[in-house]
Amino acid sequence: MEVGVGLRALEGRVSAVAPWVFGLSLLGHLAMVAFQTKMTMVDLMVYRNASPELFTGELYQWRLKEFSDQFALPFTYPPFSALVFVPLSWVPWAVARWVWQLVSLACLWFITRKSLDLVGSRDPRRALLWTGLFIWVEPVRTTLNYGQVNLVLAALLLGTVVSARAWRQGAGVGIAAGLKLTPAISGLYFLVTRQYRAAAWSVVAFAATVGVGYAVSPGQSTQFWFHLLGDAERVGPVGSAINQSLRGALSRTLGYDVQTGPVFLVAVAAAAVLAGFALRAAVRAGDTLAMVVTVQFLGLLVSPISWSHHWVWAVPALMWLLYGVRHRLAAIAAAAWLAAIGSYLISFLLNAQPSIWVVSRPWYYSALGWVYPAVGVLTLVTVAVVLRPRSGSRSPERVEDPVDLLRQ
Fold it and tell me: How many Cβ atoms are within 10 Å of 401's Cβ, its own excluded?
């Protein structure tokens, strides 16, 4: 606990300059956008350039060959997603990239602020301070560099699943899943909290996105849902260091793609059991953010591919670990996340591997390649341990007023 209090005390001393931290970070990032320093935004280019192919019938045959000498990037999302991205193709590339960056930055601020709201901290300076710092951590940084959609989806999910209206909760999850499938794991939150109307609305909303896709292009919808879905190799190299899922980590450790074989299934089962304990504890404690983070981390762990930039959910996880509870294990997990996402270890491992297609590697690189899954598991353990009910004692100590704590 002393580590966590120390971090919060340090934050208290710099909170006065939080607007300056945010402003300078924002200016630094926008300068990178202006001068294209490591800002190729290849994924945004895929969204923008591939989406019109929805109307030619070549959406899933299209490839972006620029900027990639090892893997020509395909469009990997459902047809509904391509339809949503079509307006990006109506404006010049310079406009599209600026709009996307500003939207993504706004979503980052929203994720940070909403996470803090959920743990009872409503100090606007804290949201500004952490948003400014999060701009430079690896999952967020790579999301911005690639022009990825992760921050937008995370903001959509975090802003809707905790809504008071069932239709809004379900619509958020269903639409997000219609855009990029993996957010469908969010429906588990509705089941464990027995919000069955929201779960039903999510199914309806998702079905609507599939229906829209079929209305626009029946052939490509059939191709995606019945032929391409589940083909992880089409999405990218499973064994590359950038894949921070259990399958990626296990494959690098064993030297071959474990696919969906026994090793992978055992790991998935273990992750599901651990997440079950964490969810049970979070539900009993009534901790909404802990539930949301647990569900998202389970999805990231068991998905065949979870690129390092998919782990933007480390942002709300850190807010919960630092401000949601006061416990030594939470402080350790928070420090582990700060080291993991602040060190740019994944970028180092990407440069160290000879090719994105080579699965086997020296044992020390394989061990380092477990960083996000390992800290993700540590976070689930933390939720399960810190929030578990104790006989004869009160609920775990919660940080009801972090601002008062900083003043002590």
Answer: 13
The C-alpha atoms of residue 356 and residue 21 are separated, in whole angstroms, by 36
List 73's β-bridge partners, or say none. Answer: 64
Which H/E stretch holds residue 176?
A: helix 166-180
| Residue-wise pLDDT tens digits, 353-381 | 988 889 999 999 999 999 999 999 999 99
Please give the average per-residue pLDDT across 345-360, as a whole number. Answer: 93
Diameter of the chain measured on Cα atoms: 66
Q: What does the block give as tokens for 211?
A: 């229906």
Contact (CB, 8 A) for 180 and 65? no
Cα–Cα dist 292/279, whole Å? 9
- Using a pLDDT cut of 90, give the percent of the chain over it: 82
Average pLDDT over residues 241-262: 96
φ, ψ at 181 (rounded to 5°)? 50, -55
Buried b (16+ CB within 10 A) or exposed e, 213-243: bbebbeebbebbeeeeeeebeebbbbbbbbb
Beta bridge partners of 307: 243
Please give the Cα distance from 249 to 179 (Å, whole number). Answer: 26
**Per-residue model confidence (pLDDT) at position 406:** 32
**What CA–CA distance (Å, rounded) separates 253 from 367?**
7
Axis-axis angle for helices 314-323, 2-14 (nearest 10): 100
Burial degree of 163 (CB within 10 A; 0-12, 13-18, 19+): middle
The reported pTM is 0.92
Q: What is the pLDDT of residues 101-160, one digit of tens each?
A: 999 999 999 999 999 999 998 889 999 999 999 999 999 999 999 999 999 999 999 999
Give the long-range contacts of residues 221-227, CB within 8 A, separation 24 or more: 221/78, 221/79, 223/60, 224/60, 224/78, 224/79, 225/78
CB 223 within 8 A of CB 93: no
* 3-class secondary structure, 66: coil
Angle in degrees, CA 61, 65, 69, rounded to 5:
130
Which positions ≥6 away from 156 have C-beta within 8 Å? 172, 175, 176
Question: What is the pLDDT confidence band of residue 16, given thresholds at 50, 70 and 90?
Answer: confident
